[in-house]
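user: Kindly work through both lines:
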Amino acid sequence: MEADRGRAQDRGRVMRIGVDLGGTKIEVIVLDDRGAVLDRRRVPTPQGDYRATLAAVVRLVEAAEREHGAASVGVGIPGAISSHTGLVKNANSTCLIGQPLTADLETLLHREVRVANDANCFALSEATDGAGCGARVVFGVILGTGVGGGIVVDGQVWVGPNAIAGEWGHNPLAPTTPEDFPLPACYCGRAGCVETYLSGPALARDYREASGDTRDARQIVSGAAAGDAACAGALDRYEHRLARALAAVINILDPDVIVLGGGLSNIERLYERVPKLWAPFVFSDRVDTRLARNHHGDSSGVRGAAWLWAPATAPDDGARR
């Protein structure tokens, strides 16, 4: 191990390994100190098997280090580490819940390991050398199967004492309109959460309830572009709800930039329409917050996990404000 560390230093690079521990796949990426991708590996996630999941992460990290030398390790997970117990909580990969993931990985890898929520990793990636580069306050949004968020201030993830900073998906959508009722039930036990309106399945449900037809989010977007009235109506309601939800974030956090990620971030018209719609709900004479599409796509989460160790703005990219 020490010989590997020496070889890495001799090459003049600070190696960082990021791990994206997802529900279906585990991905490992190796970055140098300028954010260049040196290696990428992935394997299927062992379903429902915590010990097998640990072993898979360790194998990927060790294989990457045999090729590139010793490195720091950061891990993004679909949950959070409780600041009270040190155990995983709020994870949709349920085999992780209640497990000492950080401590177990540190024991197996013989070093400190930094673990963070995957939405926080996304936000950190985009703040470091992505769409939010150069901004002081970045709010990273995940619009996909679920709705998540992360906050980065001056290049550092803001976690909060309860480890839930940025979890806007489980706040109520407000203000509500007659079209928003009845309030949809959320898996968290409440009703009317932002996630129940703005996830991909939520868009599909809204379309189905209004039209009696069944389409997924991608088909709804393409249908709206082709002039289908039912699809256009569903997408219009989605944009108004997104604008209201983000206006609430702006009123509290007042970020320089909001970066969208997840599958629904690929809807191009959001970036023009939503900033026009959120203005009436923001408590200001003007809104200078910028809405941006992510720069690193599906790689942002795993890149952000690597940047959990001493993130630094990429020197050649300049500030994207």
